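Section handout 9: paired folding examples.
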Amino acid sequence: MNIDKIRNFCIIAHIDHGKSTLADRMLEITGTVAKREMKSQLLDSMELEREKGITIKLTPVCMQYKGYSLNLIDTPGHVDFSYEVSRSLQAVEGAILVVDATQGIQAQTLANVYLALEQDLTIIPVINKIDLPASDVPRVSAEIMNLLGCDESEIIKVSAKTGEHVDEVLDAIIDRVPAPKLEEGNETKALIFDSYFDDYRGVVLYVRMFGGSLPKNSNITMMATGSKDIALEVGILNPKMSPRQTLEPGEIGYIVTNLKATREAKVGDTVTLTKNPATKALPGYKNVRPFVYAGFFPVSNDQYKDLKDALEKLSLADSALQYEPENSPVLGFGLRIGFLGLLHMDIIRERLEREFKLDLIVTNPSTDYHVLLTSGEELDIRSASDLPDVTFVEEIREPWAKGEIITPKEYIGAILELIIGKRGIQKNISYIDTRAVIDFEAPMANLLTDFYDQLKSSTSGYASFNYELGGYKAEDLVRVDVLVAGEKIDALSVMAHRSEADAIGRTVTKKLKEVIPRQNFEVALQAAIGARIIARETLGAYRKDVTVKIHTGDRDRKAKLTEKQKRGKARMKRFGKVDIPSEAFTVLLKRDS
């Protein structure tokens, strides 16, 4: 096809601002999908995506409209998948910025706009949900003009639900978005902006051609990983796979390979021909590292192999998923899994429970720490229980996050108080119309627990939050251990700043007292730093009335039975085991509730 007749674009927005619905209307108007096959959120194929109303996996689709080939990429809207969004932005020349007419600009909208501006994309601002009674189009228009510096005439007001003015968006794509840019020379270069594993065909790559052509059955090489394979099939998506003989320059399409796992062809990698390889890869590739870790343990140890097999299957299609075996004296065998963020963790947990019918205990999520030993050796630990003896530790560095909160002005005080309470540092406050943008830095571990819940409750749900990983800082960190009946429970150990350790110890012991059932003997719940106990709660014993079977009022007989019970309790206290319920392992997720 003539390259001047191709337009590549994506839709970026905050969660729930209607980008998947807008994509549905475009597919209808362009006749890409027949009316009888149409369903809401057509490009969201996963059951979880439909249920939660969010896009998890990005999806490309090719539409024909007025003689032009329009290639759309529907991107995820959550911060956990920002790297995938940045790669899909590199694959296009234009971006439709969707803003909800009732909510205005949110934190993730801002983050995605910055990503789009970095890639020098043509941005088409669209205000969605104008049909709702609560919509405030003038206010949201002013916010967009303030952000992008555009005229009001450039903003398209639509209702993706009813289809009102959606055809104007398609016309704007043809008029405003430039034709695809190509790399100099005739070398074959294709950017992988997504990949997934098909049980029957192997790894399928979604690519954008930046130079040269890629014929079917050609030998291909992934430049970053060095993997070599054959392009068994190439073609475009509309939205089903439509095979072609060749992928031409500027096109967006798919390549079916023989590869057995997505880690062999990662997002951001460059595909080239093995016979005539490109000399230089496309820019922007990085190896995505997880920074949230949690222990996943099956309720029954019989399911350990099933859990491992299930994770192997999921990791074939998710190259960011990393895991290693973990053994806990209390929970038995399990796996420590690394995630891109809390939403990523939530999705994997739900998929394991639903698709593989597993009953799981998930421990408190933590982040990774860089430990410098007195010998000069550096360790990367992912769990507090892995921390070596403190006498061998020179310093511990923890990850810090750069955060951005958008909020109505009246909540600034409450948010600053929350940030300071999380050991955060407020960097800057700027204003977009009636709302403030607060930039801050804070320890990642403090944002993982209940920061988002507290933010929503202190701002009546009006604030939105976006973050990215900053650097690592050396801090005065300690390991807080939890002892139940004198026995240390590794799965409950947590890393904390020394100034916060006492408060965390008190909170954990109080919470455990609520969740652990009472035993026939007194149970001590303690928090400790090394050998020093910093907090204690006592779980009282059940008192069974052993004198109830005596029908006489003989005091000696009653005293004898009570004394026997007392000796029995003392023996139980020495040898008795406390059964810890699964809720006890997530007490830190709701510290302040």
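Moving on to protein 2 of 2.
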Amino acid sequence: MENLVDFTKDQMNVVFVGHVDHGKSTVIGRLLADTNSLPKGKLEAIRERCFKNGKPFEYAFLIDALKDEQAQSITIDSARVFFQSPSRSYIIIDAPGHIEFIKNMVTGASHAEAAILVIDAEEGVQENSRRHGYLLWMLGIKKIVVLVNKMDIVGYDQATFDRIQTEYSAYLDGIGVKPLFFIPASGREGDSIVDCGTSMPWYNGPTLLEALDSFEKTQPLANLPLRLPVQDVYKFSTFGDSRRIVAGSIASGSLHVGDEVVIYPSGKRTTVKSLEGFNTDVQTAVTGGQAAGFTMSEQVYLRRGQVVGRADEAPPAVSTRMRASLFWLGKQPLSPQKTYYLKLGTARERVQVETIHRVIDASDYASQNNWSEIHHHDVAEVTFKLAHPLAFDTSDKLPDTSRFVLVDEYEIRGGGIVLEALPDEEAQIREDVFLRNEKWVRSSISMEQRAEMYNQKSALVVITGSKGVGRKRLAGMLERQLFESGKLAYYLGIGSVLYGVNADLKSHEAPGGWREHVRRFGEVANLFLDAGMILIVTAVDLTQADLNVFKTVIDEDKIATIWLGDDCCTDLIYDIRLENGDQIEQAAVKVKRLLQQQGIIFQV
């Protein structure tokens, strides 16, 4: 079939959805046959096979490729077929209609920019008809045709068509979906598929093929703000090649050599030095939809899941909280007490449901409140709380970077769209850090040059624990051991900042209280790290909230956290815990081993 398609033409992906047995596959089969898009002899071979097996021919058999589909007469996977009109080539995705294969339908529809939603004229609007309409809205598909199929079974009755159009339009209006066309048709007889036919003189709208050809191809994403989710960072060291190439696919916007870019959620800034590609000519620009790689003039820390944007364009939202609309596919209910993984772009982050605002019956869009969990096939509006901040957009701005899936036990259990970015505890601090990074006066000596000269990477070593456990003695011993091994290390007790830089604040009394002390302490530490040093700090009973402030001000990968003492009496998530009875010299060696494991120093 592929050799019948001219791939030099404009192409469009179209998904067919609808309730089981409403005739999607039949409509597609008829479309293929009537546009002469089948390989020579294919139609005759299927007719002959049906005759030999003693069953009537159906156009659906033309695309039902799986044996189980033939046996069960339902489409269980998203089959792709190709056809073309005089003006355009199409890839059609026949998505399953059965409620148990909703996940397959979502997977297929996520690759489409237009949709044909098929409704049986005799059965009318079904629960899955409404559910599929809601899912198309969640996926951001706006080019929608509602095809009222099997009009031949109801005698091509206009009143039946009008009733379905009125009922389904009212439902779609409630979720903000406006189909471009409602078309009465018969896939079996071919009415309004490619040709008008003579059975419905009361209908003067387009055929299905005419409607498809009338769709305007989605314009390239180059005019939107740049969003490049980082897939990986490749480092080269052979043959004198020292490049670090940031790689990913551009979801929207464009990227040029010389652009100043911002890495989210950290807010770090750098400039594009070169654009790189495998076996390609030298490029000066790449745009939405393209795979891209670039090198940086000023090396900054990046990792998979972060998002690259341009400094002169609207930024993505950054937060640990988001309001979202989701569709739950898991057999077990979605519970606020359980931790899941949220995958958005290339990011993967732990997440919990903070609040269930409402559970929506997708069959009639009725809201139900006061739910404590979300059940199989439920649609819900929730607030998520993430373990770490993510960069994302809302669905009304950039759909591609607002879609997510939820993973539980290595399986996708649900998905949805981000409706709103919500403020979190670090929102103001993060905003201040973004401004600081924008105004930062950079040294002419890069972090890589300092690391190579000093034979170490800069880091913040946080030693905490209860009073009287020897935090300061451990910090002093660690500083001495690092110094004697030739490292640039400095011990800064928090009191040195409280009564110096923070002398204008009175602990727990000034605006922001202790949190502001921690923020300023983090900013002072950031100066030491920018100078390439290993900074050791001590404080009593630090909490996870305190550490989150440090992680907002300083790159998370540069922080090592040690709890000293037999029991951790706060909610702090530490890297290692040292026993109170450890000899101080041996405890310092254990911390040095941690720094070695994290790549901060290269020998103990």
